[in-house]
Amino acid sequence: MYYMENLTQATIAKRLGVSRPQISRFLTYARENNIVTITINDPQPGKIFLEEKMCQLFNLKECVVVDRVASDRHEIMHFLGEESNGLLRRNLNDGDIVGVSAGKTLYHASQTLTDPQKKNLKVVPVCGGTGYKGERWQTNKIISNISERWECESFQMNSPTFLSSESLKNQLVKETEIKNTLQLAKKCNLIIAGIGILEDEGTLMETGFLNDKDIEELKEKKAVSSICNSFLDENGNDINFSGYKRMIGYKIDEFDENTKIVAYAFGDEKIRSIVSALKTGRIYALVSDIFTVQHIIDQYS
User: Fold this and answer.
1) Continuous segment of H or E residues that includes residue 107
2) In sequence order, which residues have a C-beta less than 8 Å from that of residue 43 and are 6 or more positions away?
3) Which pLDDT does position 2 carry in this prediction?
4) Is the CA virtual torsion 194, 116, 293, 300 positive or negative?
5) Which helix (H) or strand (E) segment is 285 a member of?
6) Predicted local confidence at residue 43, as pLDDT
7) What does the DSSP 8-state code read for residue 66?
8) DSSP string covering 71-105, please?
9) What is the pLDDT of residue 154?
10) Partners of 232 in the beta sheet?
11) pLDDT score of 160
12) Per-residue model confidence (pLDDT) at position 70
């Protein structure tokens, strides 16, 4: 019905009297067990070429390019989540600990993630809250979205990422709940992360995640990107940021080198930030849209 009659999953679910996720699982099972095989006759290189080119340029192990047309940015973010389901399924194993950061793109993408069909997964934050204006985009909310869809155990971080002082941070990390969550986060096998920009329209600025003094310091030190609590210059080097001393969470270089970091980001305004993050050499896979990836290749190949 899906392949031969071109019906949507929702229509099929209604006809058969089952849920849409069940239809999605049936289709995945059919593909993975060769009940259904798909042949693509692409007259142009298209997304496969772009994915391979990005892997070559930035030493990525995988790249997922969304080439679907969207009516707005939120829809693109949902597509990023949908298209990354196969990537996550391939790279997760039973018992894995999955770290999660914060941000708008990750929040919307998390709403379309499907069960990777792995046992005993744990989902844990790698940072605290994003700021007083970013309730929906906080790590805890994203973790709730993911754990609900994956039906797995989840943990919360009931603290801001940046505290008002180093002494307060040192006190909080001794609290049993926060201490245990941080210890678990350090053992992540895979991390789902957004890439932030140091611009007025970025989530970091919009939510109050950083104060005016922090922003001034980061701009003076030419930071262009943030990922997993790390602030980077355009060459992917970590900025010597004084705010790290009062931060709860981990920087990108504090995770084990075998931890797979899957980064979600798109948009012309994020090109410098994406490239900065990729230049760290720590990104396992990038999930983006075809226009962003094409522009990156045009500029950096």
Assistant:
1) helix 104-110
2) none
3) 58
4) positive
5) strand 283-289
6) 44
7) E
8) SSHHHHHHHHHHHTHHHHHHH--TT-EEEE---HH
9) 96
10) 225, 238
11) 85
12) 84
Q: Looking up tokens 């990525």, which residue turns up?
A: 60
- Give pLDDT, residue 206: 56
Tell whether the torsion through CA atoms of 14, 111, 294 and 32 is positive or negative.
negative
Q: Which amino acid is at 208?
A: G
Cα separation, 252 vs 6, whole angstroms:
43
Spatial strand order in the sheet of 196-197: 196-197, 225-227, 230-232
> 274 by DSSP, 3-state: which?
helix
CA–CA gap between residue 124 and residue 118 (Å, rounded): 16
Is residue 84 within 8 A of residue 109, CB to CB? The reply is yes
Distance, in Å, from the CA atom of 113 to the CA atom of 86, rounded to the nearest integer, reads 10
CA angle, residues 151, 152, 154, in degrees to nearest 5: 125
The answer to whether 158 and 122 are in contact (CB under 8 A) is no
Ranges of residues in the chain whose predicted pLDDT is under 50: 40, 43-44, 134, 201-202
> Which pair of tokens denotes residue 189?
């096998």
pLDDT of residue 287: 98
Structure tokens at 175: 């609290």
In the chain the domains, ranked by start, together with CATH numbers, are 1-39 (1.10.10.10), 45-300 (3.40.50.1360)
pLDDT on residue 44: 45
Contacts by residues 2-11 (CB-CB < 8 Å, ≥ 24 positions apart): 2/27, 3/36
How far is it, in rounded angstroms, from Cα 43 to Cα 300?
25
Burial classification of residue 193, based on how many CB atoms lie within 10 Å of its CB (0-12 exposed, 13-18 middle, 19 or more buried): buried
The CB-based long-range contact list for 53-59 (8 Å cut-off, 24+ gap) reads 53/297, 53/301, 54/286, 54/293, 54/296, 54/297, 57/296, 57/297, 57/300, 57/301, 58/275, 58/278, 58/279, 58/283, 58/286, 59/281
Partners of 129 in the β-ladder: 160
Residue from 159, 191, 153, 164 nearest 174 by CA:
159
